[in-house]
Amino acid sequence: QVQLVEFGGGLVQAGGSLRLSCAASGSILSINTMAWYRQAPGKQRELVARITSGDNTVYGDSVKGRFTISRDNAKNTVYLQTTGLQPEDTAVYYCNALITTIHDRGISRSYWGQGTQVTVSS
After folding, report:
1. Contact, 76 vs 111, CB < 8 A?
2. How far apart are CA 51 and CA 36, in angstroms?
C-alpha cells in the first residue's frame, strides 16, 4: 500500500556534496516523522537525521553541522542535503517514515525505503 523510493546516491570525492530524496506514495492519510538512517558494511544501522511533522529536527552526532534534513509535505518527500562528505560517511542510506494510511485511520506504521548507496573516496 505504501512505498518509499530513494534517489540521489552516488560516488563523490571527500569534501563533496550529495542531495538525497525519498518520496512516499500510496494510500497515505498523513505522515508523522520522516528520517534517514545509514548502514555501513559490518556495522549497525544508525540514525542520521529525523524531522517531525512540525519540522523539529534531530541529527546524529557524526553529521551535525554537515547534513540538513527537510521535507515537502505537498510532495510527501523528505530530503537529506549532505556537505563536507568524508569516507566515514560511506554507507547505504535508508529512508524511514511513520505513516497513517486511509485504510488504517488512527494507527501509524513504520515504512522503509530500499536504500541508496553513498560512496565517498579519499
Report:
1. no
2. 9
The Cα–Cα gap between 39 and 118 comes to 10
Q: What is the pLDDT of residues 9-54, one digit of tens each?
A: 999 999 999 999 999 999 999 999 999 999 999 999 999 999 999 9
Query: Exposed, middle or buried by CB within 10 Å (0-12, 13-18, 19+), for 41?
Result: exposed
Which residues are CB-neighbours of 59 under 8 A, at least 6 positions away?
Answer: 48, 49, 67, 69
Cell 534534513 belongs to which residue? 69
Q: Is 79 helix (H, G, I), strand (E, B) or coil?
A: strand
Q: Extract the C-alpha cell encoding 60.
A: 546524529
- How far, in Å, CA of 8 to CA of 20, rounded? 4
